[in-house]
Design goal:
There is one protein chain. The chain has 3 helices and 17 strands. It has one domain (46-67, 119-124, 132-361): Porin. It has 362 residues and is mostly beta strands.
Length: 362
């Protein structure tokens, strides 16, 4: 009987250990948390642009995609893996406030962002359709913090009209004041590992008083966007800038140069140079003033064009989520830019704009 009792105690002990193990595992699962957040921005405003039409009159419009900040809505999901690691996804779409229509010209639903990634002590890796390295890099020293993108030159500096890359693998890590960035996007062209590819590297340094950043982006782009077969040529962009905080005033500026190689039959490489500078003044906790100047000097096929934009903007916070905004801006085109119908539809060399409206974040 004594032997039988010992055996029973051993079996009971094993069962207790098994139950404790299962409870421990289930407790770990219970502590792993997941969340999905719905967020967005609604921007309703009016803009009056003198010389905004070919006839030379003022064009009063409702900038339905947002004057101050682009209209968007999205989902941000995070799953805690434990040990400081997590998985995240982000789906973001743009819309036209006045009609509710999708703002993407190609009809893509999540045209603003569609990524999945993993993060931890090493940093974050996101995969998918996402903002360019340039966009993230210049945020530290872009005077309007990437607002008024339809007026300033920040959109062009950060990657053209979309400011995003397809098929991109983006890494960044925050190590004290340093943030290194690496991006790679495969080209998907059969028989070539280089055509249509993109890679970029950047570094930001930010403290409470100083911010600096520099980056390089290489793209292998087709010479013709419409031809079925076309050679690919290098586009190289170099960017650097910085900011300094002096009490309630932030001073900042930057430089970017993009060089697009072309066939020998075309007169010279396409050269885009951007210079910008500005200041932000925090008059109070709810009232801010920002002033900036942007200069773009372009040479394409031996023809030079220039665009200068001066802009003064102010915001007044009604709450943490809602603010009123207003700006006055002046744009001057010279050279080939005056008749560039894509860049300057009205073909007038001088234009003055006034905007005002309300922006709400949720």
């Amino acid at each position: 009987m004594e032997v039988a009792g010992r055996g029973a105690r051993r079996i009971g002990l094993k069962r207790s250990l098994a139950v404790m193990t299962l409870l421990g595992l289930s407790a770990g699962v219970a502590h792993a948390q997941s969340s999905v957040t719905l967020y967005g921005s609604l921007d309703g405003g009016l803009r009056n642009l003198v010389n905004g039409t070919k006839a030379g009159g003022a064009a009063l419009t409702m900038a339905s995609n947002g004057v101050y900040k682009s209209n968007r809505w999205g989902f941000l999901g995070i799953e805690d893996l434990g040990g400081g690691y997590y998985v995240r996804f982000n789906l973001e779409a743009g819309y036209i406030l006045s009609t509710g229509a999708n703002s993407a010209s190609n009809g893509a639903l999540f045209s603003r962002n569609s990524t999945v990634g993993i993060g931890g002590p090493f940093g974050i890796v996101d995969v998918g359709h996402q903002f360019t390295l340039q966009h993230r890099l210049i945020k530290d020293f872009e005077p309007f913090d990437l607002r008024y993108l339809g007026i300033t030159e920040a959109a062009a500096i950060s990657g053209g009209t979309s400011g995003r890359d397809d098929n991109a693998i983006h890494y960044h890590g925050d190590f004290g004041p340093w943030t290194p960035r690496l991006v790679y996007a495969p080209g998907g062209i059969a028989g070539s590992l280089s055509d249509n590819t993109m890679y970029a590297v950047g570094l930001n340094y930010h403290t409470k008083m100083f911010k600096f950043g520099a980056g390089y982006t290489h793209r292998s782009t087709p010479f013709s966007a419409t031809a079925t077969t076309t050679p690919y040529f290098a586009n190289n962009q170099y960017t650097a800038g910085g900011a300094v905080a002096l009490g309630p005033v932030d001073l900042m500026g930057g430089y970017s140069l993009a060089m697009q190689s072309v066939p020998a039959t075309v007169h010279g490489a396409t050269r885009n140079q951007y210079l910008w500078g500005g200041l932000r003044y925090q008059a109070s906790s709810f009232f801010h003033i920002t002033a900036a100047y942007y200069d773009n000097d372009n040479t394409t096929a031996g023809v030079n064009g220039r665009k200068g934009v001066a802009i003064l903007g102010a915001t007044y916070s009604l709450s943490k989520s809602t603010e009123l905004y207003a700006d006055v801006d002046y744009t001057h085109f010279t050279g080939g830019y005056v008749t560039n119908a894509t860049l300057n539809p009205s073909t007038h060399s001088k234009q003055t704009g006034i905007s005002f409206g309300m922006n709400h974040n949720f």
